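Question (not urgent): is this output format expected?
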Amino acid sequence: MIRPDWIAVDWGTTHCRAWAMGADGTMLAEAQSAEGMGQLAPAAPEAYEAALLRLIGPWLGQAPVSIVACGMIGARQGWIEAPYMPVPCAPVGGGAIRPTTRDPRLALRILPGLSQSAPADVMRGEETQIAGALALRPGFDGVIVLPGTHSKWAHVSAGEVVSFRSFLTGELFALLSGQSVLRHSTGEGWQADAFAAAVEDSLSRPAALASRLFSIRAEDLLHGLAPGVGRARLSGLLIGMELAAAKPYWLGQPVTILGADRLADAYATALAAQGVHVARIDATEATCAGLAAAHALLKETA
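Got this back:
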């Protein structure tokens, strides 16, 4: 029977993950469900509470348990809105919202995301990973990259997020490879040389992106592309465009990438080709470390 000291929750759009945490910081157990915010919204608060209890119920005893949650559960369409904290600020520690719950055992606090007024930008969930990266590497000053559907580049200094930029790169890749004419030429597989060449092409000539994208289909029709070339080239062109726009962030800066999957590998490869030394941190490790940092700060101010 597991009785955690507190519970960490990462509640995103598609999934909800929870970790039972011991008083000494050890992870006692983990659980996940497909009841993400996207599956529940719009719903009454009771639906979110029920989904949480289905996930962590076996860990609960009779006494209230502190639960710290991050992610889309704090969005306007989620359980309850946790308003954004404007940068520059520490990634976690302020603005947590405590929703009303029927079950008295749920001492739940939802962390806010971060916002930037000019240029307008927001993040929700990534701020906790950034906090985790800073907890794992104290004193880090530089840039943290979070690849994903909406990738983030965050400039951090003195324990604060100074500024950040988001890019729709991952969503563009999904749309173009799955719903555009390029779906006929971007099947499975991966060709590393094609990716590297496409990154360099797009980074040096980002204004030609739309034309270079269509050339993937044209070349496949006229000459036939080897397996994996079209998909790698599409990814390289889009990431190269992102690197061109994010150059003020990575040029001359120490860079840490949060992620251990193939997408994070692609970003690391693209940056290394530009002479950027990249450090890596596992995204789940960063999430848990960030939630632990938030829990410690909330405990201090309780």
